[in-house]
């Protein structure tokens, strides 16, 4: 079977930085499924037109396209039930929606101000203009004004991670003894950062940092080569 | 089997207001286990001495005491595997720790400023003095100064609930089609509020409010009688 994952990339095609694409890359590795990760840029709408989606991730298996990370994860779980589970059952799938909602709506919001300028710097020219225009509309101010105090924002980010930290004080992964999709979702945020920024987001003795390293250690060679750490 | 749940109570013994006790009351109902809910007050340490704990909830089954809500929930799941599951399996148990950590460390912190004075007002005299002393030490200011702007705090609470709201837009309960312990944990916060305050915490058309009503509708008669709604 041919399997292609379209992933958001910077000017350097090896620099992948979408947290939503990263969670699917980790989910594919979790399932032990080989795939071709294909770089895609914000302004390459035409290249995705076949899928009916205007953004990534898009997974294409034997010509069938599936867009949106939660839909792709649910598809992988249903299509490959004999591979290691991403959710640990129906209840786990339902419960994981909270980890996803919190990551998308809380964690990402705390992180993005720290990354905006680094993302902008790494994009190719066409994407750079698109990125500035769309993000300045979203934040209502110039990119350079979104994060006037990075140190305070870093403190906010670390405080935001408190519930993750509390769980990781009691078990090695959000999924328990081994990672589940919930881990991949939160790790996607850190891999997003790692793709564009050298900033140390966590203190060395933070249980979240220890977990982040455990997650990095479990990544496949091909994915590690894309992390720029 | 005799089964007693010690629950935090106000001067009126029917006014139960600990979110940690409520989640266990809901868990016992979920498992279909009959129990005697016994009111306990902050300053009645001696009455709990037998259990080795100085706070509630404490569950006593045939003379065996178990303290701390997460430990009690795990005990109920292990001891009554044939009753409806609280977690939906091992993965669900691990994943639910995030809902618990978020509720304890984020949701409760957004809610408590709105409730402090109401709690204080409902306590008996001995507990009232204890409560003021211990909470003023925790917040570093007089109870009356903790929430100078209740409207702003209410807006913060509603914003804090965003990830719960996002999940409940897609499924009727945090646990999926039916409540799991994760629902009981978040609902405990609302029952805590309901025990002492008449404040409308949510807008009528908020998916969280619709879920809260569904949760109330499922509660047993005995528990509904304790909610003062």
From TrEMBL, chains A, B:
PROSITE patterns linked to this entry: GST_NTER
A Pfam family of the record is GST_C_7
The GST N-terminal domain covers 8-84
Q: Which Gene3D superfamilies match?
A: 1.20.1050.10, Glutaredoxin
According to UniProt, the name of this protein is: Beta-etherase
């Amino acid at each position: 079977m041919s399997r292609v994952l379209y992933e958001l990339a910077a000017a350097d095609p090896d620099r992948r930085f979408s947290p939503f694409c990263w969670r699917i890359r980790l989910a594919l590795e979790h399932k032990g499924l080989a795939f071709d990760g294909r770089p895609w840029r914000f302004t390459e709408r035409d290249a995705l037109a076949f899928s009916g989606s205007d953004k990534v991730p898009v997974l294409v298996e034997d010509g069938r396209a599936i867009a949106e990370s939660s839909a792709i994860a649910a598809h992988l779980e249903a299509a490959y039930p004999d591979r290691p589970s991403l959710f640990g059952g129906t209840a786990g799938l339902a419960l994981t929606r909270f980890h996803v909602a919190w990551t998308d709506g809380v964690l990402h919001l705390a992180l993005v101000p720290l990354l905006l300028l680094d993302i902008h710097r790494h994009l190719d020219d066409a994407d750079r203009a698109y990125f500035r225009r769309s993000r300045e509309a979203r934040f209502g101010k110039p990119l350079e004004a979104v994060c006037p105090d990075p140190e305070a924002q870093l403190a906010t980010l670390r405080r935001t991670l408190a519930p993750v930290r509390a769980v990781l004080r009691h078990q090695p992964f959000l999924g328990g003894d081994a990672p589940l999709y919930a881990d991949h979702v939160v790790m996607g945020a850190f891999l997003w950062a790692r793709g564009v920024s050298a900033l140390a987001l966590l203190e060395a003795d933070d249980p979240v940092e220890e977990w982040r390293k455990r997650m990095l250690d479990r990544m496949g060679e091909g994915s590690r080569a894309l992390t720029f750490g």
